[in-house]
Amino acid sequence: MKLLSVNIGHPRPNPWKGLRLTGIDKRPVDGPVAVAAPGPKGTGAVGLAGDRVHDVKHHGGVDQAVYAYAREDLDAWEAELARTLPNGVFGENLTTLGLDVNGALIGERWRIGRDVVLEVSCARIPCRTFQGWLEQEGWIKRFTKAARPGAYLRVIEPGEIRAGDLVEVVHRPGHEVTVELVFRAMTSEPDLLPRLLAADALPQGERRRALRRVNAQAPEE
After folding, report:
1. Under DSSP, is residue 13 helix (H, G, I), strand (E, B) or coil?
2. Please, is 218 exposed, middle or buried when counting C-beta atoms within 10 Å of its C-beta (0-12, 13-18, 19+)?
C-alpha cells in the first residue's frame, strides 16, 4: 500500500456553485509536502501545505483535512467513462494504490511515510462543483449509485509526505462502519443511519443526523 501522488489544488473559477473560486483542480507535486491539522472549518484551511478550499461552509477543517481516493477506483471510472482520469482529478489530495479506501473503517488510522498519521473520518459527498468540473451530465447521481466516494481524514500526527511513501494501517476500531456505509446512509439509504452510531470517530454532523433518525424511528410511549 502506497501513495502514488500527493495533489495540491490550483485555484480556478467556479461557475457551478456561485462561488468565485474552487480548489478542485488538484495536480501531483514533486518533493515533500507538510501535513498538519488545519483547525476548525470556516477558514479554508486544509491539512496539506499549499492547498485550501474556497467553499468554506461545506469543506475543510479538522474532519475534512485530507481527501484520499484509490487509483483502482479511478481506473474503474476510466473504463466506465472512456476517458483518461489523471491522479488528482477527483479533487483528492492523496491518490493511493493497494489500499481499500471505501472499505476503511471510521476511526481507522493510517501511517504514511515516517511521521504522518491520519484518521478516517467520513465519506465525500458529491456536489455541483464536482459534476461541473468533470463535465459529466448526471454525474452526482452516477457517483452516488456507485458508492465509491473516497475518504476524508483527520491529521493525528503531523509531518511530511511525498509520492511513493508506504501506507500502513496501524489501527482498526472494533466496529463495522465503513466509508462506503457512511456514504450510503448519508445519500441514498437513510435507514442505515442508526448503524453509524457505532463509530465513535464519526463527525458530529453525521452523528446528529443519525441520532435524529433513531429518534424518529423510536415508538411513542
Report:
1. strand
2. exposed
